[in-house]
Design a protein that fits this description.
3 helices, 16% helix, 6-stranded antiparallel sheet, flat
Length: 298
């Protein structure tokens, strides 16, 4: 039986006449060669996939949404802290004192210590730094960290303590975020002074600077730096102002200017204007320059 001629579209094979029996093997090999060429042509054709209905996730949008969700959760915690909810205050390591029968100097019953204010001073994607002031004049600086989908307690620093119902001091407190180590406002500058209930003892004014780091770690950069003065004899005071020039590259210096506040009796010597410059050196803010009335201090 003779093998009929092979007709393959697009194949470069010329068959002039039916092959004889003796050429059957050669024809079979030719068939395999042509089939292989045709298969290769089919396999090598490029595959075109339509992307008209394919949605590609936006990584940037997901990060923004995640950051927004964490901030929203933090804001909800702030509302609970400000309300004085005891269970929520444990996340800040804040414990308020009850009166336990205490009385004011006037003899009136004292009130329980309560939350006066809660402020978020700095926050990162994984942590936040929170300042709590009580009605009695105690102050806590606390940090929380993001863990398992919620904010949890990290660390706590007592800024002002020792005040109790019936013996609450008069507190002057200011706090603001500043950008020293980087463009992010990861540092908090806290200035405070405290007068006891009798008016006979004054602590401060002091300046504390604390840095928020990853996982809720807080690192003090400056502790109880002088930020003014009170003359117990004359009643004269000096007051401080801090400044940071954001246009300068990081790390930025912290400048403290101290000027005369309440003056003493007539004829008393006025206090000089003082300017101090602090710069980050390693893990601390270090005083690098001081001037008095425009002249370099010795």
């Amino acid at each position: 039986m003779e093998i009929p001629p092979l007709v393959a579209s697009g194949a470069n094979l010329n068959v002039a006449s039916p092959p004889p029996r003796s050429n059957a093997r050669a024809v079979a090999i030719a068939c395999l060669s042509v089939c292989a060429s045709a298969c290769a042509a089919v396999v090598s054709r490029p595959t075109v996939t339509s992307t008209a209905n394919v949605s590609v996730p936006d990584a940037g949008a997901a990060v923004v949404a995640n950051r927004s969700a964490r901030r929203s959760a933090l804001d909800q915690w702030v509302l609970r802290w400000r309300s004085g909810e005891p269970g929520a205050l444990l996340a800040l390591d804040v414990r308020l004192a009850a009166t336990e029968g205490a009385r004011e100097l006037s003899g009136e019953p004292a009130a329980d210590e309560r939350v006066a204010n809660v402020t978020v001073l700095a926050w990162r994607d994984d942590s936040a730094m929170v300042l709590t002031r009580s009605s009695c004049g105690n102050v806590w600086l606390s940090s929380v960290r993001w863990s398992d989908g919620n904010w949890a307690r990290a660390e706590s620093i007592v800024v002002v303590d020792g005040q109790h119902p019936g013996r609450c001091g008069q507190l002057e407190l200011r706090a603001q975020p500043v950008a020293l180590s980087s463009d992010a406002r990861d540092e908090a500058a806290i200035t405070w002074s405290l007068q006891d209930v009798t008016g006979e003892s004054v602590r401060g004014p002091f300046l504390d600077v604390v840095q928020l780091r990853t996982a809720g770690h807080m690192h003090p950069l400056l502790h109880h730096a002088p930020f003014g003065s009170v003359d117990d004899m004359t009643g004269a005071t000096t007051v401080g102002v801090i400044s940071v020039v954001d246009d300068l590259p990081a790390p930025r210096p912290l400048v403290v200017s101290i000027h005369a506040g309440r003056r003493g009796p007539p004829g008393s010597q006025p206090s000089p204007d003082v300017e101090r410059t602090y710069r980050i050196r390693g893990d601390a803010l270090v005083l690098t320059h001081e001037s008095r009335d425009g002249a370099d201090a010795p």
